[in-house]
Amino acid sequence: MSLDLRQLRQFISIAELGSYRRASEALRIAQPALSVSIQKLEHIVGVQLLERGAKGVSLTAAGAALMEDARRALFHADQARQSARRVALGELGRLRLGFVGSATYMLLPRYLPTFRRRYPDVELELREDSTVRLAEMLRANEIDAALVRGPLAEDPSLSAWVVERDSLILALPAAHPLTGGRVALQSVRSEPFVMYAPDKVPGLNGVTQALCRKAGFSPRISQEAIQVQTVVSLVASGLGVALVPGVTRAYSTPHVEFVDLSDEDAYEALAISLVTHHDTSCAPVLKLRDVMLSMDEDCS
After folding, report:
1. Residue 185 pLDDT
2. How far is Cα 291 from Cα 106, in angstroms, rounded to an integer?
3. Choosing a second label site near 27 at 20 to 30 A (CA), which of 44, 161, 207, 227?
4. pLDDT band at 84 (very low <50, low <70, confident <90, very high)
């Protein structure tokens, strides 16, 4: 028979209080029942653990030997209980979070410090990739959640929450004559465009192509790229103009000017969503979602 944690707790209480009566009162258990429980414990161990005397109850040598291990067993049992509870509540464990590169401009710096402060025992494992690749990793259970741009293909197994909205702006080489004020997208219709690779970044590609069509033209593509930072670098290199998220201004460069568009459809044309499995068992994901959504409400 194995030792019972309840019996160990009773044994420690009697030894520390030096009395069956005081222990029974502290544990809120009838004294006869407490005596029977200790007898069963001694039977399991095979030796006498406590002895009554004129000055109360004291430990035998065997009882003293058991005492330290009994305290350690209760401590580890309580730690295990707390750990299991905290994992279930999302306060302990690991969160594998994927993200697109542009999430590093404002979104991650805005939310992650608060999340880490509230849940310091959650280990964050961050992985940067394209929206397409992140969706593949999510479906393959290689990550627990992803911050992606644009709507994913309809998938009933996934849930998504918009955590950042942004407008499209125009990135121009610094010496371009249109720098300095708001412009209509149609004014650069004859310019070469640096565009997002449709197979790797379908969300941004689709939104930018649609905005150009609404402005009355199809962009003449000079170069394709995957990361927003790369698009900006190619604009700086004189390979064309580009439509980029407004947050890109946070990482300005002297070789590129960012210009607001007067086109109404450019306003809040973009979104980054937190995406995870519909029935996720990763509680830290839900904690991160709550942090993001609650902070948005506080700012609204």
Report:
1. 97
2. 15
3. 44
4. low
**Length of the chain measured in residues:** 300
Rounded Cα–Cα distance for residues 102 and 144 (Å): 19
Q: What is the DSSP string of the chain?
A: -PPPHHHHHHHHHHHHHT-HHHHHHHHT--HHHHHHHHHHHHHHHTS--EEEETTEEEE-HHHHHHHHHHHHHHHHHHHHHHHHHHHHTTSSEEEEEEE-GGGGTTHHHHHHHHHHHH-TTEEEEEEE--HHHHHHHHHTTS-SEEEEESPPPP-TTEEEEEEEEE-EEEEEETT-TTTTS-B-GGGGTTSEEEEE-TTT-HHHHHHHHHHHHHTT---EEEEEESSHHHHHHHHHTTS-BEEEEGGGGGG--TTEEEE-B--GGGTT-EEEEEEEETT---HHHHHHHHHHHHHHHHH-
Residue 31: CA atoms inside 13 Å, Cβ hemisphere, count?
A: 6
What span, in angstroms and rounded, lies between the C-alpha atoms of 298 and 237? 41
Looking only at the bridges linking them, the beta strands covering 242-245 and 145-149 are: unpaired
Rounded-to-integer distance, Cα 74 and Cα 197, Å: 59
The C-alpha atoms of residue 288 and residue 122 are separated, in whole angstroms, by: 11
- Using alpha carbons, select from 275, 66, 79, 273 the residue that is nearest to residue 159: 275
Distances (CA, A) of 119 to 129, 287, 299: 25, 9, 21
Instruction: Read off the pLDDT band of 196 (50, 70, 90).
Output: very high
Closest CA to 136 of 290, 245, 288, 275: 275
C-beta neighbour count of 267 within 10 angstroms: 15
Taking residues 274-297, report their average pLDDT: 86
Number of other residues whose CB lies within 10 A of the CB of residue 84: 11
